[in-house]
């Protein structure tokens, strides 16, 4: 990693820092590109900040504190200019630049010494407090206001439901008490269509803090956040409170501020961490294959999954719930129909790795022993269900799984540990969303596109996209299908595009092997897609309420996926990202004229063409449909 650090005195900073005569109480610093300006003032012992971007006021004067109603003295201020690059173990980019200007304020907080760090990037800012000599009885609460314009509109996650929004800031005050439970990340669309997002990073390193909570001021309707310290004492490090900036909502999906703010990798060896695709059994139960075989929780079903994974080069097979009946201290009571050891041996012979579910609701095996037991079975990962939104418990689970060289996939309302994939890259994905058919509810294109823009900002998502037997699922031929028939709205091309659009280190494809084999020419896109090994990612088209187009590069190959709402339409995809002077071969995976997410979801077509830099592709998407491209340099014989 290349790292350049400049520490410059406040007196000689020149254009980067504009300070008034009372230098300790007013500081203003700009981003490296000079387009973002952060001003911090100490007014009567209260720290206030103001954020401008491209000469526009984004956030008006707002309070930030580590202990509300406790006066703060700023003892001195310095500026650091940081420019470095680093290489993630896996992710959306193979190299990430970490370039920011930082305000470091030394503080006196009611007799306690500490610091306020404020980092200003070209596309966002982050705040963090460091405080010494904290006692167990001290009531610390990292508080931050966000005084937005009344015309700004907000969106935010809603658990396993479609995200909320758009809601005008001026209307937040009128929400009922349940609707005011605003989850992070919050996405803000400004009247000029620019965007910002409010969230946190590196909660993983902030021992004792709960997940950041958002509040609506009962009088003004404005937003604020709190991060409460539970029981930590001594030296305290808060999470980073983060504000991302983007011309479009899609720009924030490739924004590297949150991962740059996370602590560097704490693992000495990461060679065993392999992102990839996995087959999954849970949604296939009850499926009848063309030869009459009915899938269930049994040895023969799992052998079929493993055979297909081996044939298609799928790295993992994930065995979900009910492989055991009950867990007690040091013991699993296994299912009667499943010979787990036979499945483990079969997978080893076929060179397919296994990931195994664990559900704390079915009894506790003993968390200290759980991960070593999974390692002893030869597992490569654990899918952890019903752990709750408990930061300390989830942190321990990540560390224990890493010590036993296990990937971990959190489910069922997990802690949004944004940035943790840098610090502990075995935290491969999590279900911070409404996964496909979750709770057996309907799943719409509108819900998907909102979650792709909003929920995905907190990090990699396990959404289980990629169903191909849509007619069978909608007709009730699965034990775990939607409760309401014909309520799962998508097309097979949209399903395929979603596996690319949603970023994850583990792409879980949920359908039966025979369903994929029946459309092998379409499955070819998923088969070739290199998960988590991307050199570059761009979001080419973005509208929270309408559509998204994501392009990801691996080497010289590009994979592009688009998804649209139920109105359908045409999206312009400019191939400006290709290298000049090179002819490329493109394979197009498309909806047909007759495709419709409600009436004809499985119709698709595949064609090939030559393309080059600067070409404009007019991708036609059916109602609720999708569009995919695989582009690679032309091979000349």
From TrEMBL:
GO-annotated molecular function: carbohydrate binding; hydrolase activity, acting on glycosyl bonds
Entry annotated with the keyword Hydrolase: yes
Needed co-factor(s): Ca(2+)
Limits of the Glycosyl-hydrolase 97 C-terminal oligomerisation domain: 533-631
Keywords, in A-Z order: Calcium, Glycosidase, Hydrolase
Pfam family for this entry, one: GH97_C
Ranges for domain Glycosyl-hydrolase 97 catalytic: 284-431
All residue ranges annotated as the Glycosyl-hydrolase 97 N-terminal domain in the record: 29-264
Description of how the protein assembles with itself and partners: Monomer.
Protein name: Alpha-glucosidase
Lineage of producing organism: Bacteria, Pseudomonadati, Bacteroidota, Bacteroidia, Marinilabiliales
């Amino acid at each position: 990693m290349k790292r350049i650090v400049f520490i410059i005195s406040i007196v000689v900073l020149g254009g980067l820092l504009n300070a008034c005569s009372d230098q300790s109480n007013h500081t203003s610093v700009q981003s490296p590109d000079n387009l973002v300006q952060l001003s911090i003032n100490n007014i009567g012992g209260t720290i206030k900040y103001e954020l401008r971007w491209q000469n526009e006021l984004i956030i008006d004067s707002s309070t930030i504190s580590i202990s509300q109603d406790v006066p703060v003295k700023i003892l001195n201020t310095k500026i650091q200019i940081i420019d470095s690059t680093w290489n993630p173990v896996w992710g959306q980019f193979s190299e990430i630049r970490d370039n920011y200007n930082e305000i470091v304020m030394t503080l006196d907080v009611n007799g306690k010494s500490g610091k306020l760090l404020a980092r200003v990037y070209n596309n966002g800012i982050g705040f963090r407090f460091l405080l010494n000599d904290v006692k167990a009885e001290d009531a610390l609460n990292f508080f931050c206001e966000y005084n937005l314009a009344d015309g700004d509109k907000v969106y935010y996650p809603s658990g396993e439901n479609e995200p909320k929004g758009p809601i005008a800031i001026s209307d937040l005050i009128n929400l009922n008490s349940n609707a005011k439970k605003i989850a992070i990340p919050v996405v803000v669309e400004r009247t000029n269509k620019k965007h910002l997002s409010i969230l946190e990073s590196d909660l993983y390193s902030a021992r004792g803090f709960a997940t950041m909570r958002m509040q609506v001021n009962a009088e003004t309707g404005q937003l604020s956040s709190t991060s409460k310290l539970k029981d930590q004492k001594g030296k305290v490090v808060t999470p980073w409170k983060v504000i991302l900036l983007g011309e479009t909502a899609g720009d924030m999906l490739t924004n590297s501020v949150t991962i740059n703010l996370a602590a560097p990798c704490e693992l000495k060896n990461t060679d065993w961490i392999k992102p990839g695709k996995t087959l999954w059994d849970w949604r296939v139960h009850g499926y009848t294959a063309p030869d009459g075989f009915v899938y269930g929780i049994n040895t023969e079903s799992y052998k079929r999954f493993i055979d297909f994974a081996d044939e298609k080069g799928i790295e993992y097979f994930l065995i979900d719930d009910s492989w055991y009946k009950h867990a007690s201290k040091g013991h699993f009571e296994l299912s009667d129909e499943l010979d787990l050891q036979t499945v483990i041996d079969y997978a080893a012979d076929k060179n397919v790795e296994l990931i195994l579910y664990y559900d704390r609701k079915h009894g506790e095996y003993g968390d200290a022993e759980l991960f070593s037991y999974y390692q002893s079975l030869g597992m490569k990962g654990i899918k952890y269900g019903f752990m709750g939104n408990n930061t300390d418990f989830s942190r321990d689970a990540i560390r224990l799984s890493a010590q036993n060289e296990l990937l971990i996939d959190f489910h069922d309302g997990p802690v949004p540990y944004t940035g943790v994939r840098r610090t502990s890259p075995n935290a491969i994905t999590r279900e911070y969303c409404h996964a496909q058919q979750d709770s057996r509810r309907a799943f719409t294109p509108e819900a998907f596109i909102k979650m792709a823009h909003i929920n995905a900002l907190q990090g990699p998502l396990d959404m289980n996209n990629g169903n191909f037997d849509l007619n069978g699922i909608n007709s009730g031929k699965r034990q775990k299908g939607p409760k309401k028939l014909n309520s799962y709205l998508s097309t097979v091309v949209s399903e395929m595009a979603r596996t690319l659009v949603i970023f994850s280190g583990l792409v879980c494809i949920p359908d039966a092997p025979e369903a994929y084999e029946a459309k092998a020419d379409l499955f070819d896109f998923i088969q070739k897609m290199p998960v988590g090994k991307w050199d570059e990612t761009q979001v080419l088209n973005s509208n929270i309420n309408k559509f998204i187009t994501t392009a990801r590069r691996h080497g010289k190959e590009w994979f592009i996926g688009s998804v649209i709402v139920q109105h359908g339409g045409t999206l312009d995809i400019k191939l400006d990202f290709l290298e000049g002077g090179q002819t490329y071969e493109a394979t197009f995976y498309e909806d047909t004229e007759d495709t419709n997410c409600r009436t004809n979801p499985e119709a698709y077509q595949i064609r090939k063409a030559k393309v080059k830099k600067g070409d404009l592709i007019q991708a036609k998407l059916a109602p609720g449909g999708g569009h995919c491209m695989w582009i690679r340099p032309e091979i000349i014989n």
